[in-house]
Design a protein that fits this description.
The complex is a heterodimer. By secondary structure, chain A is α+β, with helices and mostly antiparallel strands. In chain A, α1 crosses α5, α5 packs across α9 and α7 crosses α9. The chains are: A alpha+beta, B alpha+beta.
Chain lengths: 344, 339
Amino acid sequence: MDCKELLFGLTDTDGVSGSEENAGAFALSQLRQYTQDAYIDSFGNVIGRIGVHSKEKPTLLFDAHIDEIGMIVTFIDEKGFLKVGNCGGLDRRLLLAQEVCIHGQKMVPGIVCSKPPHLLNEEEKKKAPELSEIAIDTGYSKAQLEGLVSPGDRITFSGTNRELLNGRVSGKSFDDRSGVAAILMALDLLQGERELPFNLTVLFSSQEEVGERGAHIAAYDIAPDYAVAVDVSFGYTSDSPEDKCGKIAGGPMIGISASLNRSMSDRLIALAKEKAIPYQLEIMPELSGTNADVIAVTRGGVRVVTLSIPLRYMHTPIELLALSDIENTANLLSIYAKEGINHD
Amino acid sequence: MIERLKELCGISGVSGDEDKTAEYIIRQIGGKASVTRDNLGNLLVFRKGRNRPKHKIMICAHMDEVGFIITGVTADGMLRFAPVGGIDPRVVIGRAVIVGAAGFPGVIGTKAIHLQTDAERGSVPAIDTLYIDIGAQSQEDALSHIAPGDRASFCPDFLAFGDGMLKSKAIDDRAGCAILLELIDSDLEYDMHFAFTVQEEIGLRGARAASYSISPDMAIVVETTTAADIAGVEEDKQVCRLGAGPVVSFMDRSTIYDKKLYTLAFAAAKEIGIPCQTKTMIAGGNDSGAVHVSTGGVRTAAISIPCRYLHSPSCVIKIIDMEQTKMLVEKMMEKMAEI
């Protein structure tokens, strides 16, 4: 299974929070290679049960979120410019003159309006625009947009997938399609395995970027005993605090935090060491900022851990990661599914 | 013409590094005109017409584009860079670029929004704090692929969208170059000189040498100019509008244009039945600034395609404006030859 091809396939689809249909359908088609027991729930969550499940075994959940950050059309002005709101944490410093795609009745390209510098005073030139000042130029008049774009339509960055040096790639929505890719690759590695010690269930959850809502609902239905939230975390760049970052190509980051199950963290570390899979630690004092936070407090409580793919430039059209980190995440997940049970 | 524009925009040609653009233009001209490349890199083209004009006329467009120059590489393999030409710092982060002659893709990012302070989230980082990430693992690794002095340009990402709109980087002024190529292709009434100039974006430098060498009596500078007909800009500050035809300037920061040629341009537009507008703000400048004061003075007109988001990776023009700009330049050449 080619990691790059899978990742690019996943990121070529769109799935801004609350509108994950296209990304979800693509992920479901990939998931169906490993199980026929897979479906999309009414909340946009993609769920699949892998292998033989039985009451005697504990249930293990692998989660990655299928949604991506983006914008939503709120208003169309008399000249046809679109006003927008944000879906998730949008970095408004990089919006001006960006190419975007409006997912209306069909895909409509647009450019974020940018006032020419000679119309700005010195203070305005240094200021990132407020979201209320953002407008999108579709090149159409209001009349031409009739029946094409409506308030409520989602907007994605038109990120082109690019290959850089050393197996590093850049594009949009790697947060968290890279996690989805890692889980799918783990399932690929598990093919042909005899019965797993877990009831393995996979969740590609909706609406993580607006408050981990998809996982909140799906985890209730799935009722897991153990869960691994596979997401991205900060890849080190020289302007970032080093202690909050992982190294690109340094392997998956195993989470340790007050809200995560320490014995799961330790088991992942032990398995990574045993199988010589590169890994790094991600120490978070309290909550993890991932779906693990909501899954942990589902029903009577779930043992959770995070496994993070280091990623630079999070929430931009140029998110950057090393493919080897996805592959190593997949390796570690597949080994955990086989040997993760520790009788503590 | 649009296909040519797409090909021209696909070429990286930041100021001082116009060779690839020039080579493309030379190939396109083929044997249709005599072409010389001067010491600065300008292409000076002479195309025979059916008749000799009363005055020597030069038509001018610049080959260079705004971009970046690599100034160094950090210990962890990130490329430091400086802008070449007037780039708005607000349109730099979150973009992909193409670095060096081999065209390595790179991206310009900063730490994630989650790690930014409130003050950082609301302000635009200075360009000298940014870097280009080409995926290099170390300084040594980066230097085995690129070198200081290499240029970086925005990615072309040419797009036709909306109601006859085009988007790409470097439409300023490859659109002018594409129009000149069309004119060189056409059956000309009068002999014409064409100059494809270098280094416009860093101070109209190529045009100075080109207009000295050609030494014309009159000139037309074919350009793109800022249109601010967008949301949030009042009408009196919009400068010019897309879809309202070519823009003929009376004055900008580089030139007070020849009054008779200015009037003649509007008359010519009327004669061929196309709309024509003027620039309603004294701002910007172009090669005219160098051309009109050349030798003993050159009567100069600037005819521009209105362009939104100029000097960004997403310059936007309307196809019909470009077609009508070509028509107006063609008509003006004839009228000027006959004055």
